[in-house]
Specification:
Strand order of the largest sheet: 3-4-5-7-6
Strand content: 5-15%
Oligomer: single chain
Length: 649
């Protein structure tokens, strides 16, 4: 970029940068050129270079090396240089910097200048960045008939430039010293009349900017009215009509008009305004969302974010436009649109808005994924229309961006699945499909392993009304878990889930217990200490407590009867029979009967009930006491029990 490039051209090049690195390179080259120009003699480009440096400062880049140039330009006799110098002083200097002391004498001279415009520059700068000491030193130079701290000024007697400076000064006084608010609130009617005159006046070549009459003064007056009307009913009532007039009569197609309207919106939202006026302000921000300037779109969403909680319904009307901003090319606009979209989620729009958020998640920048997943989880937890929808939504997020979810996602989802009893079959089928499709997403694999370990029997049954069932064999399930255990993509925590699920399946399958025993024993010498400890403990369960395992003794027509040995001696034992019902109708009047040879003594305790709920939602248990000194075989229904669980008979 040439050092002599115009400000507008520099702005165009910077805004056209495709990456932050490219933007930073452009600015570094231009700043180097500006430094070189500052070191040279006056060649007529000083104000031009400082103006470019101020734009760089607005973007957040260092611009402190321009402070002394501000001092030089303020002392210049040329108005165009003095104007840029004062602007630079207001942006780059403050009362804490030594350089601010160097302009005190220049401000003193300019306050008594013959030109009203130079006077207004000095007065505006003094109000913006003047320290208490500087204000005391310059107080004798200020026309106290025009601007007075203790007495309400006569506004209509001031020319536009001095009026602008006076408004800036009084604004600073009101912000720094709340005790002056009551004094200046008496001037609200005069301020309103001045503002109405600006809004309704015709074309003025001296102060017109893009068809707006003195937008700088309008913005300053609106800002002062906002301070004076805050938490004050009387001042707010006096301003309401004016704000409505400004909102309806200001053209927003130009930047100057947008600036006035934005200040109007801020004033409406900060004072005690009428509800209709607040809706009008929100609609103005909604129009800003359609503006081609991304900066205007950004400040619009920033403002909507602040008021969405108090004016939720008004902001909700612009939901479609806000969601469209998720497709914006600018990352900062995307982030604001995401935050605002999440704030708009409610029980009424949860389904439609969540579709948009999930679509955005599939293509959003990596730096926004964690925030997006967190927001979706929070919204789903608060407004989920059903448990199935809630589970489906979280599984969709895990499948799309499982690597960017919070650590607590896995236990939270497990808790949700646990409470959704009627969806256990549906969930285990869906997670099994996800597991065999992809094992790279650790959070999804962990939940899938847990679910298979808990509800593997529902998976092996091959029956599920909620979804198309998958015909799965015991070996298929164990193959899937063993793949997770052996994969280099699996973290130690994921392997722990898979190993525990494998162990749990030993109580839910009948033909592959030895394979499970072999898998578990392998990890007894694993290099990972936690995984090794689990494997050793599980091996101990196999060796010491294998007799406590269920052996299914009856399974027909949806009814399953399980037998478990609780206590035993050489000739006697206590058995628990557990009956469950997987059909869609409850079974009533249940009776469990047993016949034993004469050599066996049988005592059946009272059952826990005589009704088995449908869909496996409950069970009936009954305790049986047996004394079998001869250890003869027993028969249940048509099934012969040749031996009880080892080490029983």
């Amino acid at each position: 970029m040439s050092p002599s490039v115009r400000l507008q051209e520099m702005i165009r090049v910077i805004r056209g940068a495709r990456t932050q690195g490219e933007e930073r390179g452009v600015i570094q080259r231009e700043c180097a050129a500006i430094r070189a120009q500052f070191r040279q003699a006056d060649n007529g480009t000083r104000s031009h270079n400082l103006a470019k440096l101020l734009y760089v400062h607005m973007l957040g880049y260092p611009a402190h090396f321009g402070q002394m140039e501000c001092v030089r330009l303020i002392a210049s006799p040329r108005y165009n240089e003095k104007r840029v110098g004062y602007l630079g002083a207001m942006m780059l200097l403050d009362e804490k910097q030594d350089a601010s002391l160097l302009i005190t004498n220049s401000i003193k001279n300019d306050l008594s200048h013959s030109s009203q415009y130079v006077q207004s520059l000095a007065l505006c700068t003094l109000g913006c960045m003047g320290s208490a000491e500087m204000c005391r030193d310059l107080a004798p130079e200020i026309d106290l008939n025009s601007v007075r701290v203790a007495i309400i000024p006569s506004w209509f007697g001031l020319i536009a430039g001095v009026l602008h400076g006076a408004v800036v000064l009084i604004t600073e006084l009101c912000e720094r010293n709340p005790e002056t608010l009551e004094q200046f609130r008496k001037a609200v009617p005069e301020l309103v009349q001045i503002m109405k005159g600006l809004v309704m006046s015709g074309y003025s070549p001296e102060h017109n900017v893009a068809g707006i009459s003195d937008p700088f003064l309008q913005v300053r007056i609106l800002r002062l009215l906002r301070i004076l009307g805050r938490n004050n009913e009387t001042a707010s009532d006096a301003v309401n009509d004016l704000l409505a007039q400004v909102a309806t009569n200001t053209d927003s197609s130009k930047t100057a008009g947008s600036a006035v309207l934005y200040e109007t919106v801020l004033t409406v939202m900060d004072i005690k305004s009428e509800s209709g006026l607040r809706v009008l302000a929100v609609n103005i921000l909604g129009r800003f969302l359609l503006n081609n300037d991304r900066n205007i779109r950004y400040i619009s969403m920033t403002s909507l974010q602040k008021i969405v909680q108090t004016d939720h319904n008004a902001v909700q009307r612009h939901r479609g436009t806000i969601v469209d901003c998720l497709k914006d090319q600018d990352a900062s606009v995307k982030r604001r649109a995401l935050e605002l979209s999440l704030a708009l989620v409610s029980a009424v729009n949860i389904r439609s808005l969540m579709k948009e958020l999930l679509l955005f998640l599939s293509s959003c920048p990596p730096e926004l994924r964690a925030h997006t997943t967190s927001g979706i989880f929070n919204a789903a937890e608060r407004y989920a229309p059903s448990q199935r929808w809630h589970i489906d939504t979280i599984l969709h997020v895990l499948t799309t961006a499982g690597g960017d979810v919070r650590d607590e996602t896995v236990p939270n989802l497990i808790q949700l699945i646990t409470t959704a009893t009627e969806l256990h079959c549906y969930t285990v089928h869906k997670l099994y499909r996800a597991l065999i499709a992809d094992i790279s997403v650790q959070s999804l694999v962990q939940v899938a392993c847990w679910c298979i370990g808990e509800y593997g029997d529902l998976l092996l049954r091959g029956e599920c009304e909620e979804t198309e069932p998958v015909q799965v064999a015991e070996d298929d399930v164990l193959d899937a878990l063993e793949t997770v255990l052996q994969s280099h993509m699996s973290s130690p925590a994921t392997r722990g889930f898979a190993l525990t699920a494998t162990m749990k399946l030993s109580t839910r399958i009948t033909h592959n217990v030895d394979r499970i025993r072999s898998i578990v024993s392998i990890y007894g010498s694993c290099i990972d200490v936690e995984l090794q400890q689990r494997a050793v403990e599980y091996n101990a369960l196999f060796k010491k407590y294998d007799h406590m395992r269920y052996v299914i003794v009856y399974e027909k027509n949806g009814v399953t009867l399980k037998l478990q040995t609780d206590r035993q001696t050489d000739t006697g034992m206590t058995i628990t029979l557990t009956a469950t019902n997987s059909t869609d109708r409850e079974i009533t009047s249940l009776t469990l009967q047993a016949a034993v040879p004469k050599s066996v003594q049988l005592q059946m305790k009272a059952p826990s009930g005589d009704v088995i709920p449908a869909h496996g939602l409950g069970q009936v248990t009954q305790t049986v006491l047996l004394n079998n000194p001869n250890k003869v075989g027993l028969r249940s229904d048509t099934v012969q029990i040749d031996s009880f669980p080892s080490p029983a008979w």
